[in-house]
Write a structure and sequence with these properties.
alpha/beta, about 270 residues, 10 strands
Length: about 270
């Protein structure tokens, strides 16, 4: 019998919609509920303890909204801070962007990895820790890119300002880098520009693609796949639904239908 429960997707804002979009492409029959904690974004400048608290509140809130069969932490900062906590506390599987992306990177057998990420993800050494656990023995360079999120949300994915900022960040990345991890869910919007500026990088890892495939594998393994061609789509935000809907157009293949976005109160 097909499993009609929802996949929950949790993010601090809109970047996780990139992951959600890939989920919809890979698993169109699955119903999804996306929670954007927009009232408390960005998570990237909060303490580790605060991010864990926010992620726990949001996750348990989602569990009360719909019957869930799996939760995706579609925020690298939340994944870095709270994945292990939620995997222990929730009664369903939890997949995080950092672990899934690091595993996909290791599968490419690179020698030199560079990670473009938010300041907190870099500060917490999230990717080097997971890469080491996965057996990677090459070099790892991390580059914080704090301006990228704002530039993407402004829609400036190939603007001269963005080009200048990207050139600056990439100037610190070692030339021997053969694999680049886009360690924030906003950053894949900039991949065409980044790849053009760093043509020597052979492989680019996009968390949206790898998370969607890992979710599919998990549901196949547990025999929890839904049937049908089109699942339900629900969106919850803790701040302005209008602003969220406007920004979502940059991340989703299809526009959000009027009425799909509802205000949520986590308190």
């Amino acid at each position: 019998m097909a499993d009609t429960r929802f996949i929950g997707v949790l993010d601090s804002g809109v970047g996780g919609l990139h992951v959600l979009d890939h989920l919809h492409r890979v698993l169109p029959g699955e119903s999804t509920v996306y929670l954007a904690d927009t009232a408390r974004l960005p998570y990237g400048n909060k303490s580790h303890r605060t991010v864990v608290t926010y992620a726990r509140q949001a996750a348990f809130f989602l569990l009360k909204q719909q019957p869930l069969k799996l939760l995706v932490l579609a925020c690298n900062t939340a994944s870095a801070a709270a994945l292990s906590h939620l995997q222990q506390e929730l009664p369903i599987p939890v997949i995080g962007t950092v672990t899934a992306t690091a595993q996909a990177a290791c599968a490419q057998h690179p020698k030199h990895i560079a990670v473009l990420a938010t300041a907190k993800t870099v500060q917490w050494q999230a990717y080097p820790k997971i890469l080491l656990e996965e057996g990677f023995s090459g070099s790892v360079y991390q580059q914080p890119c704090p301006l990228f999120v704002s530039l993407v949300e402004e829609g400036w994915t190939d603007h001269p300002v963005t080009q200048a900022v990207a050139k600056h960040y990439l100037s610190f990345v070692p030339r021997e880098t053969d694999l680049m991890i886009l360690g924030c869910t906003h950053y894949p919007q900039l991949q065409p520009l980044l790849a053009r500026l760093a043509p020597h990088v052979a492989v680019w890892i996009d968390s949206g693609e790898v998370v969607a495939q890992q979710v599919r594998q998990q549901l196949m393994h547990s025999n929890d796949l839904a049937s049908g061609n089109q699942g339900q789509r629900e969106y919850l935000v803790t701040d302005s639904p209008r602003r969220f809907t406007e920004l979502a157009k940059q991340f989703l293949s299809r526009d959000i239908v009027s009425g799909q976005v509802k205000r949520a109160d986590l308190a």
